Amino acid sequence: MSNLPIPKLEEKATRLRRQVLQMIHQAGSGHLGGSLSSLDILVALFFGGVIRYNCQDHNDPRRDRFILSNGHVCPAYYAVLAECGLFDKEELDSLRDLGSPLQGHPSKTFLPLLDSSSGSLGQGLGVAVGRALSAAIKGEHHNIYCLTSDGEHDEGSTWEAILTASHYRLGNLINIIDRNGMQIGGETESVLALEPLAEKYKTFGWEVFIISGHDYSELLQTLCQAKDSHRTPSVIIAQTILGRGVSFMENKKRFHSGVLSEEEYRQAMKELGGS
Amino acid sequence: MVKLKSQRDAYGEALLALAQKDERVLVLSPDLGSSTRVEKLASKLGEDRFFNLGVAEQNAVSIAAGLALEGFVPFLSSFAVFIPGRAFDQIRVSVCQNRANVKLVGSHLGFSNAGDGASAQSIEDLALMRVLPEMVVLSPADADQARSAVFAAAKHQGPVYIRISRDKTAPVDQGEDFVIGRAEVLRLGKKATIIATGPIISRLLNWVTDLDVELINCATIKPLDEKTIISSAKKTGRVITIEEHSIIGGLGSAVAEALSTVYPVPVKRIGIPDCFGQSARKPEDLYQKYGLTKNKLKKEIMQFLEK
Question: What is the pTM of this model?
């Protein structure tokens, strides 16, 4: 993957935010809030020199794996994959269209290059544990990255996976939580309190990092640090803002999913430097 | 004297033989290794091939999917109420929507866990697995067929569910190795076709000796051998299905769906009525209570034939 300086990453992120807005607007539905809150994490991972992800040879078994557990934020992930050159950017316009490789929730049936189908919360981390266990059995040296939402930590199966990862000492597993504090029914702490989340992970035997999920220097430094933990799985609690980048969307539950009015769309694109 | 053998014993033996030949095979157990007869494989295969994943079936299925996506062939077994029962959505999304090469084995089918009662008696698993796209559903009739089903499942690329019993049951004479999608005519007859699945067939063979009925062992529930079923129905003109499973959603439903579409004939579905089981000291007490004994079955069959 490319290894861009921070100003270039920020520039790319702004462009991809516009892309995400355009995709969801065109599709007529989609999850704006989480797509925008997770975008900087994805940009840092894929363009900041963190993940070993060979676009020229996607079948290279030595490449790192990436599993988007909170599949509903896939517009951001699709935009990143297209930016990597894994498919034509024109495909992005087909999000949620009949027969499109870009299903509303990621589907390996329609887009075989994905490392897993997802969309039903609480399963991606378990699949990532399976892939990490495989690398441990085979003595392979790649890492397995998983992006999870804070909301899906309500799922018991997420905690089953957290238990298992430390039991098998999967130091090759890095879980990044998009901690935007909001789920579909409201604030995570009022729906089903997760805090103290870091302490919970520590007690479960994980190495824990807490950072801003929009600060590239923190993101890059921590993502690299997490790679070096040899016998302990790592979690990066990336504190983010739902709808990040568009003033009227930030931290507003309403923008978890749905679509913007024409007026809102124009205003949002303008804020992101678009025409 | 026929030698009785349980399908779970056969499963454990077959899996060991398979795993010793095929390095891709892994054994996963959500803490019921002893009950599903895979516990001994831990020492024989080593800690890189056997994993007790704890009482966490949902996660075990997702892990199995991850391992399969990396090229392994994981066999994941538990009581059928848990695998598949507990982990339906993980099977649906992580396994089937990934077309992951995972083999699921549900033991203690139907009433074979008599004592624990309804919570442990799986009467819905065929229905749950049959409805999933990509899933192959196997329901062997005896220990030998359970063994060959394990090898057939390993050869098939994609998700497979195998349903097995806890109890020692009599052998059903099987001609050859398990062929996925092929039902076998065990006995020829003219007045009706009995299509059955699972170890209940070993008993049926003795029960219907005085009736002029055709008996088919339908060991693959999906994909269903419509050709064999329809050709027999054309000959006899009426069909009875028998299974140790709910009469909703299992073999009976699969057969009725196929026949009603292609060649409608009267169909009688015999199985566990639409209710949960309960505790009993032995499975026979439950067969008695829910109508799966020789006398009750024959009565139902006779009534159907006279209609």
Answer: 0.96
